[in-house]
Amino acid sequence: MSIKLGTTAQSETMVDIGNTAISIGSGSLPVFSTPSLVALMENAATKCINDCFDETQTTVGIALNIEHTRASAAGEKIIAKATLVTINGRELLFNVEAYDSKGIVGHGLHKRFVINIENFMRKLK
């Protein structure tokens, strides 16, 4: 593995009807949903390290502690940024944050674990 501390990546999406709280079922308003924010933050974290593995390895998310601090309306672009801040063996910790045109909408920490794909999938059977 050639994973480097401080590596960053980002993911972005537009708020539309498909990722609102009312559509996802996580609330009753047409605003960017927390589950969609979580997915965007996880996607940014995976982008940080996806190129660091061969075809036998990947990572899985094992913990996420975020605050969704402000609502974003339809039409807003949301950008999530992840930064790798700790490597502890196979455990990777990322600082994650997300913004829209008005500023920060969420922040927190996300933990991922490096796995062997074949072994992981075998355990599911």
Helix-strand layout with pairing:
Layout: E1 8-14, H1 21-24, H2 34-49, E2 57-68, E3 77-88, E4 91-100, E5 103-116, H3 117-123
Antiparallel strand pairs: 1-3, 2-5, 3-4, 4-5
CATH superfamily: Hotdog Thioesterase
Largest sheet: 5 strands, antiparallel
Q: Proportion of β residues?
A: 35-45%
**Into how many domains do the coordinates divide?**
1
Report low-confidence residues grouped into runs of 5 or more. none
Q: What labels describe this entry?
A:
single chain, 125 residues, alpha+beta, 5-stranded antiparallel sheet, 3 helices, globular
Question: How does this model look, in words?
Answer:
The protein has 125 residues and is an alpha+beta fold. It is 22% helix and 44% strand. The chain contains 3 helices and 5 strands; from the N terminus they run βααββββα. Strands 1-3-4-5-2 form a 5-stranded antiparallel sheet. The longest helix is centred in the first third of the chain and has 16 residues, at 34-49. The relative contact order is 0.24.
Summarize the structure.
About 20% of the residues lie in helices and about 45% in strands. The chain contains three helices and five strands; from the N terminus they run E-H-H-E-E-E-E-H.
